[in-house]
What does this fold into?
Amino acid sequence: MRYDEVIEKKALEHAMRFTVSKTRRAYVPPASHWASKDHDDNLAPMGMRVRLKADYDLSGFAPEVRVILQALKTYGMILADNGSDNFISGAPDSRWNVDTLRQLDGSRPRISKWSR
It folds into this structure.
């Protein structure tokens, strides 16, 4: 995601990229590779898309955080790499208000709020 999409345009019109610490040796489109030797079916494959459930309440979040959360409802996020759990990638920009974006850390929905 980019600052101008979230702050100036007030709309993200695409899925976001995210990482988890452990994946399985599998992938689904749009991915074209795996990054694990683990065959555990309980682990996610690369390319898996998850969305925030439609009924997740966005009230109480800052406007820019609501833009991000709404995009997670509409387009979701696609598992793109191994890394920190549920880390969403964004373009670096000194104009981001890091304190406001921290609402995303505290708002991580329990797994029951995500749908595959």
Notes: The chain has a mean pLDDT of 89.
